Amino acid sequence: QLQLVESGGGLVQPGGSLRLSCAVSGSTLNYYTIGWFRQAPGKEREGISCISWSGSSTNYADSMKGRFTISRDTAKNTVYLQMNSLKPEDTAAYYCAAIQFGACRRPIAPNTYDYWGQGTQVTVSS
Q1: Could you tell me where the beta strands, DSSP code E, fall in the chain?
Q2: I want to staple 102 with a disulfide (CB 3.0 to 4.6 A). Which of 14, 33, 115, 117 is the partner?
Q3: What is the rounded CA–CA span in Å between residue 57 and residue 41?
């Protein structure tokens, strides 16, 4: 059974940066496309970014492009989300999710992913 564990969330001031990690166990990243999502209170879960199972392609939601960067370390079986220039509206619970040999395409739709982590909270506030 594939397991995903997010970490790296916390409280950060506007304009600051955070790097989230998604540690994958139970299988290799080389079989799974990984997506990052977020959900603010009272709002729907939205897709942020994805990286394909081959690592050869990435995609971003328009609102995050240029501020967020997805990457992976196959030796550590971990996917990262570097978030820069954070804004209060980025406050949300952040989740990673996986789909085996799935396409990394836009829109990055939550209902196309099968395995989910429990999330990590990011709060952007002064």
Answers
A1: 3-7, 10-12, 18-25, 32-39, 46-51, 58-60, 68-73, 78-83, 92-100, 115-116, 120-124
A2: 33
A3: 31
- Residue found under tokens 């990590």: 120
C-alpha angle 96-14-110 in degrees, rounded to nearest 5 = 20
54, two tokens: 């081959």
Please write the tens of the pLDDT for every residue from 48-58.
999 999 999 99
Residue type, 101: F
Residue where the block lists tokens 């550590």: 76
Token pair for 76: 């550590």
- CA 37 to CA 101: how far, in whole Å? 18
CA 52 to chain centre: 12
Q: Express each pLDDT in 73-122 by its tens digit.
A: 999 999 999 999 999 999 999 999 999 999 999 999 999 999 999 999 99
| Spacing of C-alpha 101 from chain mean position | 17
